[in-house]
Amino acid sequence: DTGVSQDPRHKITKRGQNVTFRCDPISEHNRLYWYRQTLGQGPEFLTYFQNEAQLEKSRLLSDRFSAERPKGSFSTLEIQRTEQGDSAMYLCASSPGTSEYNEQFFGPGTRLTVL
Amino acid sequence: AQSVAQPEDQVNVAEGNPLTVKCTYSVSGNPYLFWYVQYPNRGLQFLLKYITGDNLVKGSYGFEAEFNKSQTSFHLKKPSALVSDSALYFCAVRSMNTGFQKLVFGTGTRLLVSP
Questions:
Q1: Which of A63, B35, B41, B95 could make an S-S bridge to B27, C-beta 3.0–4.6 Å?
Q2: Confidence of residue A113 (pLDDT cuts 50, 70, 90)
Q3: Do B105 and A43 touch (CB under 8 A)?
Q4: pLDDT at residue B30 in the model
Q5: Burial profile B70-95: b = 16 or more Cβ within 10 angstroms, e = fewer
Q6: A42·B108 Cβ contact <8 A
Q7: Which regions of chain B does DSSP assign to beta strands (E)?
Q8: Averaged over B42-58, what is the pLDDT?
Q9: Distance from C-alpha of A99 to C-alpha of B6, rounded to nearest angstrom
Q10: Range name among B8-17, B28-37, B89-98 with the lowest pLDDT average
Q11: Could you tell me which residue, B94 or A75, shows the higher pLDDT?
Q12: Segment 69-108 of chain A within 8 Å of chain B by CB
């Protein structure tokens, strides 16, 4: 299966620690997205990359959050000084750049628990 | 701002019966509408989308959805439910007017199909 992969699948950390998540999109997909999903809610958009350029950021992405996609392939999402409110499922998605109407393909997510 | 409402937290249906999962949307400009399904410990899976054209859209696993512009609805349907259809279903919308690449999701509807 060559779908979107995310690592790690689960992360437990203590408040105040930094965490980093990785997303590997489907090969040849030049668009990559990060979403956050809390219990009982739908995913909420965080940020979007086209190749290595970060083109859109949500107001949810506070200055403790940073995302990169340095070579236009995999992406990392870092959360500094984690807070209990950061506990959520972090989802990555990718889509091809062939059309503005392509659907997004989601990875399995990284579940973050901040103690 | 664009938004999606899924008025039912849960839908219960007997296997073999038709099912409907409701979705209404609010968006400036033309809507681009999507349905995704989420199984436990798995990522969101794309079911179908409406971009333009025929109001009845057919998708994966026998699902279909009907776009109704006057009622701003995009209800998901299936003529005969299977127990394996039990999952969490999300409706989502994108618009050219507000961050086109961003998907805005509803809160989800849990579908339970009983044998």
A1: B95
A2: very high
A3: yes
A4: 86
A5: eebbbbbebeebeeebbbbbbbbbbb
A6: yes
A7: 3-5, 10-14, 19-21, 24-26, 31-38, 44-50, 56-58, 64-68, 73-78, 87-95, 104-105, 109-114
A8: 92
A9: 28
A10: B89-98
A11: A75
A12: 91, 93, 100-101, 103-108
- Among all residues of chain A, which has the CA nearest to that of B99? A56
Cα–Cα distance, A59 to B70 (Å, whole number): 32
DSSP B7-19: --SEEEEETTS-E
Q: What does the angle CA B93 – CA B99 – CA B104 come to, to the nearest 5 degrees?
A: 30
Chain A closest CA to B18's CA: distance in Å?
A: 25
Residue with tokens 């999300």: B90
The sign of the torsion formed by the CA atoms of B95, B96, B98, B101 equals: positive
- Chain A contact probe: residue of B45, B101, B104, B110 with most A CBs at under 10 A: B101
How far is Cα of residue B62 from the mean position of the Cα atoms in its chain? 13
In the block, tokens 């990392």 appear at A76
Distance (Å) from the C-alpha of residue B37 to the closest C-alpha of chain A? 11
- Which residues of B are less than 8 Å from A33 in CB distance? 101, 103
Average pLDDT, chain B: 93
